[in-house]
Amino acid sequence: MTTPQPLPLVDLKSLLPEELRALVRQLGQEEYRAGQLLSWIHGKGVEQVDQMSDLSRAFREQLKGVAWVSRLREVQRQVSPGDQAVKFLFELPTGERVESVLIIDGKRRTACLSSQVGCPLDCQFCATGRMGFLRNLSAAQITDQLLQLSRTLLAERGERMTNVVMMGMGEPLLNYEELVRALRLMRLEHGPAIGGRKVTVSTAGYVPGILRLAREDLNLGLAISLNATTDELRDEIMPINRKYPIAELLAAAAEYFSLRGRRVTFEYVLMAGVTDSDEDALRLADLTRGVPCKINLIPYNELGEGTPFRRPLSERVARFRQTLEAHTPMAVTLRESRGRDIAAACGQLYQAQERRRRSARAAG
Hints:
Elements: E1 10-11, H1 17-26, H2 32-44, H3 57-66, E2 67-68, E3 73-79, E4 85-91, E5 97-105, E6 108-112, E7 116-118, E8 133-136, H4 139-157, E9 163-166, H5 176-186, E10 199-203, H6 207-213, E11 221-225, H7 231-237, H8 246-260, E12 264-270, H9 278-288, E13 293-299, H10 314-327, E14 331-334, H11 348-363
Helix pairs in contact: 1-2, 4-5, 6-8, 9-10
């Protein structure tokens, strides 16, 4: 006779309210205990079941037999000299590392979160793309980034997080189920309570995910990394375009607006001699004319050696913006990179850490 294997423990941080209520019922407890668990996990940030002091000892022992509370380990933190960005490097229990950024911008306090370790899309100008794909993050691991950044913000500045952008490492829509679960957890009143209108999901152009997200009841903002005005160039710098070309991507953006009533944001990275010509500006105006949208211009954040892409001169950036604004009715903004001095582009801090780790192993 084989010995039955114990069931894996459930991560309490990943459970939605209805799932927690089902769990406490299974343990013979009253449903209001689920609210206490949510408050401890998402509000107070406890790491151990034994810290939940308003639960009976017997109930805590029951919980420890079936559940646990996950937590990412903070490995490194970098603060920009202007105090506009704080970059965090977290380590997963399996040893991989992932990045998050707290961005201070006027009255906004924004958490930029990762959804994957690495990314499978191989965008040629992206530090994360150069890592390759390592794994998806769980909903708890996505949510925990927000919880830890929120507690840091509250402890050090006495302020609350106002916004979330899923613009960190990875392609969020390729980790769809865990992403949506995490977004629902972020809305809980027991924790950061970030509503849908304060959340933006960024995608490199995974059309099936865009169409699926349009049918969710989350009322999210959607940002699409366009970054080129011809399929020929976009095929080269963003290989996902070979499967979902620009015309399909624009149609999906229009469908998102039709179903959700929210303008999408097209993000366009300006790379010197690659995407920053007057002709590109004119094509960008023409491409986006039929889609209710905002256009966000982003001067390239250089990755250092090993990449051919460079940041345009400020005069070229200004000329591109002027040309675009003269030919489009859409709102055009210019996003300067906060935290550029602390390697705040996705994947840069990870890459620097990995180089140091490899050097240390070689020296040892």
